[in-house]
Amino acid sequence: MSITLLRTLVAVADRGSFASAADQVCVTHAAVGQQMKRLESQLRVDLFDRSQKSPQLNATGWALIPKARDVLHAYDTMLEGVVGEARLYGELSLGAMPSTIGGLVPQSIKRLIRTFPDLHIRVVPGLADDLIEQVERSGLDTAILSVPDSIPHQLTWHLVAKEPLVLITAPDIHETDPVEILQTQPFIRHARQTAAGKLVDQWLSEKNITVRPTMEMDSLETLANMVSYNLGVSVVPNLCVPDPTFERLRKIPLGPHAPFRELGLLTRADSPKTKLIERLVEEVRQTSGQAPHVDPPLRD
């Protein structure tokens, strides 16, 4: 029995299907099926109910999952305390909100692999709620996202950057008063269910500013593209590491007491890759330009 087979088995349990597990362990759907048949053959027991179109773990399979996790944890941590920075190699799965992928994530990864070239990093884009769920069930080692409304007790959140809200406009708008601009220009709203969208709506309400919404965008990247074509203006977090499109926009401060979006890395408190994730936190803080931050990790 190999560690690879157990890792794939746990991935099937975490992701719910062979197809989704294939994405996590970076093999084909067919390879997952072959690996699971090989594991069943080695153990001489059925682990899946194959009476349905998509095989599902049976009672024996589910009973094996906690033991498989224990074996994987022991394997992943067996060198800790023996050879120094033991976990600064291998694979790291990193979830990331789309707004961080244009600059913050790649630059932070570049810093990390410059020091530890043997790392293999898998980046998974996603929205905050989905990323939190994947970290909770160990589908991801860590994720960079806005601070959640609540942090489950088994998770730890490391603050890495604060991004104040700013008004963004196309370069050919020359007005400087943010209130005047918001009241006279079409407004492009960031999706209201996102952390940034909620923050913006709260600020507009507190300032009693009435806007004229003409569009609503799910991602900051799409929103910035629309603003760059002068289709409207918006209020968004001032990205600490902007992509080229965002960099070219006018960014007008909202005053000294403007609210800000908090970005951080979320991980399981019992992660076997804690040392590697802590090093990633350091690199993200350096990349964001907010390295002096010393706030402790947050947990409920």
UniProtKB/TrEMBL annotation:
Keywords: DNA-binding, Transcription, Transcription regulation. The keyword Transcription regulation applies. SUPFAM superfamilies: Periplasmic binding protein-like II, Winged helix' DNA-binding domain. Residues 1-58 form the HTH lysR-type domain. It comes from the Bacteria. GO terms for molecular function: DNA-binding transcription factor activity; transcription cis-regulatory region binding. Belongs to the LysR transcriptional regulatory family. This is LysR family transcriptional regulator. It comes from Phaeobacter gallaeciensis.
